[in-house]
Design a protein that fits this description.
The protein is an alpha+beta fold. The protein is built from 10 helices and 15 strands. The protein is globular.
Length: about 350
């Protein structure tokens, strides 16, 4: 039996931290699977208010598994990420390491990997001036575009933009749940997006995928292998019904979970495991030992192939906080964690 100690981090208040046990949170299956392999796992609820206290806890752990969104109720990871870098620098293994998140867990990965088989006509705007100079002509030359701020979650800062049929006017719809379409001058919308460029931010621009109503396929990944799939009929960026954005018809469908061997997704699985993820790792210079234990890649259906089959377009990679997960994933996370702990330099004999 090993004596590894793992801290499981998620965001919460002081009361949540004091009351947290391995059994009373949504990660309880992960705690159970870690315990089954002889790994001692403990909750490490985080908030900026008591970050120093969490730091002392994490410095005593052999590994840290983190589930904290990049944006949550006005909070960012500006305090957490330096803390995790310090913990990793002192010898603990952290998943996902903040530097790895910056490589593969922001929207910029869509631009950097645009030449892979999952790519599409993706543009990147580094400054507000570049965005104002280049986006209007691109929008006028083709169909609707989807703009995405570099870091965010839950549809924050993700917009469908299309000409409104009037000069210099656009129709926009944010992916945030409850949003409604809005028509406004293009210049006003461009000004609205200037906030996305603060603190080194940027905007990623992709063509809108017409097959969006067919749903999104989420590939749940354990390091570089698929550990499950989720398929969901989403309503983000689709015009809400006349009864309004809060009506039942405007709500996304449930995400149906599937095993990694589910027949409908085997073509996508082969592409992801054998081609796209290895290519991404090489392109982004990510070693296998630094890949996150759990992450996901969201795909939309792209244009039909000449033979009538499906193609796939990468919509987003989620690394910071991947949950809910398929039933098979907690056991895979635990096995991968044990393998990583055994191979980590600080634990080698």
């Amino acid at each position: 039996m090993n004596s590894y100690r793992v801290a499981v981090v998620w965001r919460g208040d002081r009361e949540t931290r004091q009351a947290a046990t391995p059994q009373n949170n949504r990660y309880h299956r992960i705690f159970e699977e870690l315990a089954a392999l002889g790994i001692t796992a403990e909750p490490a609820v985080f908030d900026e208010e008591f970050a120093a206290e969490v730091r002392e806890q994490l410095l005593k752990a052999d590994a840290v598994l983190v589930w904290v969104d990049p944006l949550s109720r006005g909070r960012t990871r500006a305090v957490l990420d330096p803390l995790l870098r310090e913990v990793a620098g002192r010898g603990s293994w952290v998943s996902a390491h903040p530097d790895v998140i910056l490589k593969m867990g922001t929207k910029e990965v869509l631009y950097r990997t645009r030449a892979l088989g999952w790519g599409t006509d993706t543009r990147r705007y580094r400054t507000a001036a570049q965005f104002a100079a280049e986006f209007p002509a691109l929008l006028a030359s083709g169909g609707p575009r989807v703009l995405k701020q570099n870091r965010g979650n839950d549809g924050q800062g993700v917009w469908k933009v299309e000409p409104a049929g009037k000069p210099d006017t656009v129709r926009v719809l944010e992916a945030l749940r409850g949003s409604i379409p809005e028509e406004l001058p293009l210049s006003q919308f461009i000004a609205r997006c200037e906030a996305y460029f603060t603190d080194g931010g940027l905007i990623i621009d992709q063509p809108f995928q017409p097959r969006l109503p067919e749903g999104m396929i989420r590939c749940y990944m354990g390091v570089d292998k698929v550990v499950g799939f989720g398929h969901q009929l989403i309503k983000a960026l689709i015009e809400p019904p006349p009864e309004g954005p809060d009506s039942p018809a405007a709500q996304p469908g449930p995400r149906i979970m599937y095993s990694p061997d589910a027949e409908p997704f085997q073509l996508l699985r082969a592409k992801v495991e054998e081609e796209w993820v290895p290519q991404m790792m090489q392109l982004l210079d990510i070693e296998a030992g630094l890949m996150p234990i759990i992450w996901d890649a969201d795909f939309l259906y792209g244009p039909r192939t000449e033979a009538g089959g499906d193609s796939y377009v990468l919509c987003e990679i989620n690394v910071s906080s991947v949950f809910a997960i398929p039933d098979q994933a907690p056991a895979a996370i635990a096995r991968l964690a044990l393998d990583r702990l055994r191979s980590h330099p600080s634990n080698r004999n």
